[in-house]
Amino acid sequence: MPTRSRLIAPIFLMLTLIGCEAGLSYGIKKDMGNGITTTWTNLEPQEVLRVMNNETVSHNQVVLGESFAVINRGVSGLVVKDGKVSVGCSLTITDSSGKKILAVDDLFKDNDVLDKDKAGELKCTINTGKPMDWQQEYDIVVTFWDKYGKGKLENRLTTYIEDIP
Questions:
Q1: Domain residue spans in the chain?
Q2: H or E segment at 11?
Q3: Burial class of residue 50 (count of CB atoms within 10 Å of its CB; 0-12, 13-18, 19+)
Q4: Which whole number is the average pLDDT over 27-52?
Q5: Is the separation of the CB atoms in 144 and 122 below 8 Å?
Q6: Higher pLDDT pick, 110 / 92
Q7: Which fold has domain 24-162?
Q8: What is the pTM of this model?
Q9: Where does residue 68 rank: exposed (0-12), middle (13-18), buried (19+ CB within 10 A)?
């Protein structure tokens, strides 16, 4: 009989954990092409892109003074209230020594309520310039969160600033 009880306990524990996680969606994926690592809880993107000059790119180089966007397409999981969703977006950029050169708590503040049909794509545009310097790498964290719910989506990437080619 001891063998049977040893089998039942792990199965019961597994079922208990599954029951606690009901309704919770979470995951992580790293795109080896564009270098973006995306983690999410209850806000899942179908596709994550790095876009410069209206072209999807699979590298991390940016000319100083240029901009690029991190785009999460096909995002599902936002809580809808009266046909609207509310989303926040923070942006943090640190240099190679770990010093924060930019930290914005909510880029969408005061413009955070959208029609639910317009919120399938969450996008953050990153502008490069001083205090950034060429031939340096910068770590970027873009975080989107659901202001009506508990969902969160985070994009982490590194960008290498180039001199004009």
A1: 24-162
A2: helix 2-20
A3: buried
A4: 94
A5: yes
A6: 92
A7: Immunoglobulin-like (2.60.40)
A8: 0.83
A9: buried
